[in-house]
Amino acid sequence: MTNTTLKKISEVLGLSISTISRALKNHPDISEKTKQKVIELAKALDYEPNASAIQLRTKHSKIFGLMVPTISNFFYDSFIASVEEESRKQGYSLMILQSSDDPEIERENLKLCRQNRVSGMFACLGSNSTDLSSFLRFKELDTPIIFFDKVPEEEGLNKVSMADTRVGEIAADAIILQKKKTVLSLFGNSNMSITKKRESAFKETFQLRSPSTQLIVEHATDSQDAARLVHHHFEQHNSIDTIFCMSDEILIGAMKAIQEMNLNFPGDVSILSISNGFIPTLYHPSISYVETSGYQLGKLAFTQMMACLSGSDAMMEMTVEVKYIKGGSL
Q1: Spatial contact of 239 and 268, defined as CB atoms under 8 Å apart
Q2: Residue 326 counted as domain residue
């Protein structure tokens, strides 16, 4: 039966519409026997609450907004899957948007989420994001916003990220253990806090433990840029024995260049990456990597979101631990 209304349920049971409404909301004034009869009939008639009416009454929908720079990224793909899984369990849906690293698209996406009165917002900053005003408007509306992965440097915000300093330390330690001499180190956008933390820890670990290792540090905007940088530096330096990649996207570009130059790994050059774990398995031998789990980050972000919705006003910065996965490339 379609278009079932509270009125129809009330007519069948001989109860007032207000009694039916309160029974469906588990109101304490309604007896358990009545609640059971109402719920059973509502299920039998496939009754669905009017989402628009609920939204107007509560000032929020049962929808979370989630914005990433790009959906075609295995890290964000697993993050989205994790958040969607938890949202569904709690009766929420997701509105998924991508910014394409464009601040204007980012602002429009945020506006769309506010207009739809999302219950909360999960936001990953684009590489070109410099103005947080559109994000902070959610706080003015008492709508929690959780920044994840690429988070702002400002204090007093809810942020979840990988243990980025530890990521840099583990990557450097793995290379130092193999006594490598010249490392082409490809990091992401130099303005992002995630890059700053990983790069700083990476360099400091080499300075402390292997100061004689030559580090060639570059910043790649995408996979094509990474491929270009690898080609360029191998033309300039025939002593490079290792390539470090800060992300899966950079790894893809670096591997394209290696294949174009007919280099073997780890024979001609060793490879180490930071990865969600899928891309390294596509190569043979598999790529050694420091694992950063988008799935686990999604679980942590959702836990923090639910804490906010439960009334917690503590602004926290939380991290997910990382680990080294040994492949055959280093």
Answers
A1: no
A2: no
Domains in the chain, number? 3
pLDDT at 50 (0 to 100): 58
Q: Model's pTM, two decimal places? A: 0.78
pLDDT for res 118 = 93
Residues near 239 by beta carbon (within 8 Å), at least 6 away in sequence: 181, 182, 214
Whether 132 is in a domain gets the answer yes
List, in order, residues 6 or more apart from 221 with CB less than 8 Å away.
127, 188, 189
Same domain, 104 and 169: no
Report how far residue 54's alpha carbon sits from residue 151's, in angstroms, rounded to the nearest whole number.
32
Same domain, 168 and 289: yes
Burial call 208-239: b when 16+ CB within 10 Å, e when fewer: eebeebebbebbbebbebbbebbbebbeeeee
Domain containing residue 193: CATH number = 3.40.50.2300
Taking Cα atoms as reference points, which of 207, 137, 197 lies closest to residue 172?
207
Q: What is the mean pLDDT of residues 227-251?
A: 94
State the pLDDT at residue 264: 95
- Domain range holding 155? 58-162+295-320
Q: Does residue 25 fall inside a structural domain? A: yes
* Cβ burial, residue 110 (10 Å; 0-12/13-18/19+): buried
Q: Can you tell me the distance from the alpha carbon of 47 to that of 267, in angstroms, rounded to the nearest whole number?
A: 65
Q: What is the pLDDT of residues 104-154, one digit of tens each?
A: 999 999 999 988 889 999 999 998 888 899 999 998 888 999 999 999 988
Q: Which is more confidently placed, 280 or 52?
A: 280
pLDDT in tens, 284-316: 999 999 999 999 999 999 999 999 998 877 778
| DSSP output for 235-259 | HH-TT--EEEESSHHHHHHHHHHHH
